Amino acid sequence: MAGPSINALEQFSLTTGLGPIGRAVNFTNSNEAMLAAAVIIVGMFAVGLRARALVPGRIQALVEVLYEFVHNMCTDTIGEEGRRFFPLVFTIFSFILLGNLIGLFPYFFAFTSHIAVTLALALFVFLFSTAVGFYTHGVGFLKFFVPAGVPGWLLPLLVPIEIISYLSRPVSLSVRLFANMTAGHVMWEVFAGFMLLLVAGFGVFGAVAAIIPLGLNVALAALELLVAGLQAYVFAILTCLYLHDAVHMH
Amino acid sequence: MRWFSAALLLTLAPSAAMAEGSTMPQMNFSNPLTLDQVGWMAVILVVLYVVLSGWGLPQIGKVLENRAAVIARDLAAARAAKQEADKAAALQIATLSAARSNAQAELAKAIAAAKAEAAAKAAALDAKLEAKLAESEARIEAAQAAAMAAIKPVAAEAANSILLKLTGSVPGQDELTRRVDDALAARKAA
Questions:
Q1: Closest residue of B to A62, CA-based?
Q2: Res B19: pLDDT
Q3: How far apart (Å, rounded) are the C-alpha atoms in residues A189 and A224?
Q4: How does pLDDT run across A68-81, given as a tens digit for each residue?
Q5: What's the whole-number mean pLDDT along residues A21-44?
Q6: A181-190: per-residue pLDDT in tens?
Q7: Which residues of A143-164 are buried (b: 16+ CB within 10 A; e: fewer)?
Q8: CB pairs under 8 A, 24+ apart, for B135-142?
Q9: For residue range A121-153, what is the model confidence (pLDDT) as tens digits?
Q10: pLDDT tens-digit series, residues B148-169
Q11: Across the strands, what pairs with A42?
Q12: Which ranges does the record mark as transmembrane (chain B) (predicted)?
């Protein structure tokens, strides 16, 4: 049977956005989604800060909850020094969260499903936390790779392991986000394409049977909503953890 | 059941097509857009960071601080008011108990005074009654004595005349007087 051809990966292909200007400067459709995320974040702050009410309205409460959530995450994980990194962590967290969430809407590009994007973010976090470590402790930061209280003869084995695990941080950080978002969107597309194939292959009977993949997609939507929030949280908390290691060395 | 197995086959078809056919656009690094999007992301993120760290977050922080300050101030005011109220309540209780004990003392004094007065009055009345009683008794005694004295000649004369009628002779006057005295004394004793 010749059904419509389904390509679950087409949704990730990059094109240029913003018309001829975007084409001239290679501003992509994923950058459009990033811009949308940034505009939504700033817009939320603008609306939330309009009243500055003692008893907040909805948007103000939302912004305040986000602020306090990330602020507590920073101070709880990094310690009091976390205040310095709070704007950075907040920017990364809100950017990824909004990117994950608007990627769930039809016609919106999920830029967190691109390994180049997540790897760039993860590499930035990795390099930044390493820089913070050397800035705070100088060369002494290298002692981070020497576990305390370990017999000397084990060190030739443990130090390389520590270094490898440290270097694998950006990989795990980026692949976790990329794989989660990609898998979710591929599953959606597969089940949605499956509905088209059912209708094409079985006619009315197939249309009735398509309720099953439709129901699965509805359930997946709930799961993806959870994943969108969870992965943004995981990325932010791991950023905090890496900064904690850089500041406290243990 | 048949369409279900067909359905299973169909589910696997796209993933199979994915595996053999098209590569992932995310891994297509020959496309300049793949890396160019990272450059634009850096621009967007820097702007977002500057806006958030310079304006958005401090403003929200100020709002939260302001709220915390207002709440702390209100709590302090409430605590002070409660202290004031506690003090006033304690003062009221102390005043009340002082007034009560004062009143009780006053009352006790008044009762004691009234009791003393009543006792004095009763004693005076007693004394007066006692005196009256004594006087009356004395009067009765005197009247009795007078009556006794008056009855003796009559009794002696009656005894004399009875004896004269019975015996025909006049008894010795000394003996008679003595017997009459004895009889009267015996009667009086009884």
A1: B60
A2: 47
A3: 13
A4: 999 999 999 999 98
A5: 94
A6: 999 999 999 9
A7: ebbeeeeeeeeeeeeeeeeeee
A8: none
A9: 999 999 999 999 999 999 999 999 988 888 889
A10: 888 888 888 888 888 888 887 7
A11: none
A12: 38-57
- Would the CB atoms of A178 and B48 count as touching at under 8 Å? no
Contact check, Cβ <8 Å, B52/A114: no
| Measured distance CA(A8)–CA(A12) in Å, rounded | 9
What is the torsion angle, in degrees rounded to the nearest 10, for the CA atoms of residue B23, residue B24, residue B30 and residue B32? 150
Identify the sign of the CA torsion B25, B26, B28, B32.
Answer: positive
Amino acid found at A140:
G
Quick one: CA dihedral A92, A98, A103, A109, positive or negative? negative
Tell me the chain B residues in contact with residue A197 when contact means C-beta distances shorter than 8 Å. 10, 13
Average pLDDT, chain A: 92
Measured torsion, CA atoms of residues A110, A114, A117, A123, in degrees rounded to the nearest 10: 130
User: What is the CA angle B148-B151-B156, rounded to 5?
Assistant: 125
Rounded CA separation A206/A196 (Å)? 9
Contact A63, A35 (CB under 8 A): no
CA distance B91 to chain A (A): 38
Interface touch A52/B25, C-beta < 8 Å: no
pLDDT at B9 over 50: no
Residue the block writes with tokens 């908390």: A237
Tokens 């900064």 identify what position? Answer: A243
Whether A182 contacts B18, CB under 8 Å:
no
ipTM of predicted complex = 0.92
Separation of alpha carbons A236 and A221, rounded Å: 23
* CA atoms of A205 and A198, how far apart (whole Å): 8
The number of angstroms, rounded, from the C-alpha of A227 to the middle of its chain's C-alpha atoms is 10
The pLDDT assigned to A2 comes to 47
Tell me the DSSP string of A46-72.
Answer: HHHHHH--SS--HHHHHHHHHHHHHHH
Q: Three-state SS for A16?
A: strand
Query: Hey, which residues 101-120 in chain A have their CB within 8 Å of chain B?
Result: 111, 113-117, 120
**Domain boundaries along the sequence of chain A:** 10-248
Residue B50 and residue A228: Cα distance in Å, rounded? 25
Q: Do the beta carbons of residue A66 and residue A86 sit within 8 Å?
A: no
Amino acid in position B120: A
Query: What's the predicted TM-score (pTM) here?
Result: 0.74
Residue A242 makes CB contacts below 8 A (sequence gap 6+) with A125, A126, A129, A169
